[in-house]
Write a structure and sequence with these properties.
This protein is of the alpha+beta class. The chain has 2 domains: 12-110, Pnp Oxidase, Chain A (Roll), CATH 2.30.110; 143-283, Beta-Lactamase (2-Layer Sandwich). The chain is built from 7 helices and 17 strands. It has helices spanning 18-25, 28-32, 143-155, 173-181, 206-210, 214-223, 260-280; strands at 12-14, 35-36, 45-50, 55-60, 70-76, 80-92, 95-106, 115-116, 123-124, 127-130, 162-167, 185-187, 228-237, 243-253, 282-285, 289-295, 298-302. Strands 1, 2, 3, 4, 5, 6 and 7 form a 7-stranded antiparallel beta sheet that branches. Strands 8, 9, 16 and 17 form a 4-stranded antiparallel beta sheet that branches. Strand 13 (228-237) and strand 14 (243-253) form a beta hairpin. The relative contact order is 0.13.
Length: 308
Amino acid sequence: MKEIKQRKQRTFEGLSTLDDIMELLKDEQFQKRLGIKFTLEKSNIEINEFIDDRTIMLVTDPDYVPINNKIILYGLVDRYIEIECDVIEVTGPGYFKCKVVSARKAAHGRRDLRFKMNPEKVVATNFRVSKHTIDIRNYSIPTGIKVIIEQFENQISKNADIVKVDILDDRDAVLAQIKKTRSTLYIEDLNNPATYVPINDAFIDIKEVLQEQTSQYIKKLTDSGYKSIIISPVIYIEDDERLVPFAYIQYISKDKPLTMDKVLEIQDLAFKLVDRIRDANTLMIAVHQEILDISRGGAKLKITDNNL
């Protein structure tokens, strides 16, 4: 099954009325530049008939199959335009009776020219792909990544009196808040309530998270002989650019306050841990894939290998 993925999204603005859309579709010059979105090869499309104020008959390639009973037309006037149509009836191969639903125009014109590539001369290759998906909702962190985390903890164990690198656990209120907000817990001096207040939005407010249980949480730490604490998330970036806070690095000092330099140190270590995980969690696939077109803003690839 064909699937189209766009790494970079356009910014759009809506066309004001349905009348504007229909007038545009009736423009013969615009019709000549119409295409169908989400097709690998450019498909010819014609408006065969305007049936009523919102219904049109479209004619295209006989083997074309609409996705989810929708056809999205695109074309250029002064800017890129998309027109969404619902398929009411398929009257024959390539013949579609459609209702015009909506339209939108790109907020900006195209900045870069696109160039067609000759597949015999230019290809895309050496793809880096993930071996595993980190699914924090099901706590399914691959064993190999857990091993890397344990090794990393051992390597930085002398950076503070107590160092811990572990998976974020929703059952702990503080860790759950760190995962939810991707923020850091930093209490410079557990014996000084003034330092419980977060410096800015990048830090969590322990009193807001724990409320009436705050004093109990602080007492547990001070009774253990702790002076200062930092807990900062480790955030992995998935292939779809989704940010996944799945682990944390914790420093605890027993005799002196941890400074902001230590916070920055932990955050830097978090990036290094992610790099190490990414290197261990990726494969290099040296297949050749076709580049359909390319510009300074990116490339359009035709991916046919099942491993990609």
